[in-house]
Amino acid sequence: MGLVPISRFLQQLNEGLVDLRFYGVNPRTVRAIAQALMYNPSVHTLDLSGNWLSDEAAYYLAELLLRENVALRRLAMRGCKLSARAAAMLAEGVELNHSLQELDLADNELGDDGVKAMQSDGYCGCLC
Length: 128
Prior knowledge:
One of its GO terms (biological process) is nucleocytoplasmic transport. One of its GO terms (molecular function) is small GTPase binding. InterPro entries: Leu-rich_rpt, LRR_dom_sf, RanGap. The protein is of the alpha/beta class and 128 residues long. It has helices spanning 4-12, 27-37, 55-65, 84-96, 111-120; strands spanning 17-19, 45-47, 74-76, 102-104, 126-127. It has five helices and five strands; from the N terminus they run H-E-H-E-H-E-H-E-H-E. The longest helix has 13 residues, at 84-96.
C-alpha cells in the first residue's frame, strides 16, 4: 500500500470528512490518525468501516475521544472485527466526549458484553 492511505488522509483533513472505508488501515495507522485529529478541529466525521482493527486501535480512538478539542460528531467502525473489550474502551472515551453524536459499531464482534458496555455509559448514539 505504501503511502497511499496517508496521502488520502492528508487530502481529507481539511474537508471535514475522513473516509478510509475498506482501506487496509491497521492499528498503527489508527494511532497516527488519532494523533493528527487531536489537533484538527475541522474533521467532524471519521469512517474506518471495513478495516480489521483491534483492541489496540480502539484504545487510540478512545484516547482521541477524551480530548476536549476533538470536533468528531460521527465515528464509523462498521465491520471492523472489534471485540467487547474494544467497546468497553470506546465507551470510556464516549462517556466524556461532548461532540460525538453517532458511533457506528454495527457488524462487529461485540457480543452482549460489548453492547452492555456502550449502554452502561448512557450513550444513545451508538449503532451496535
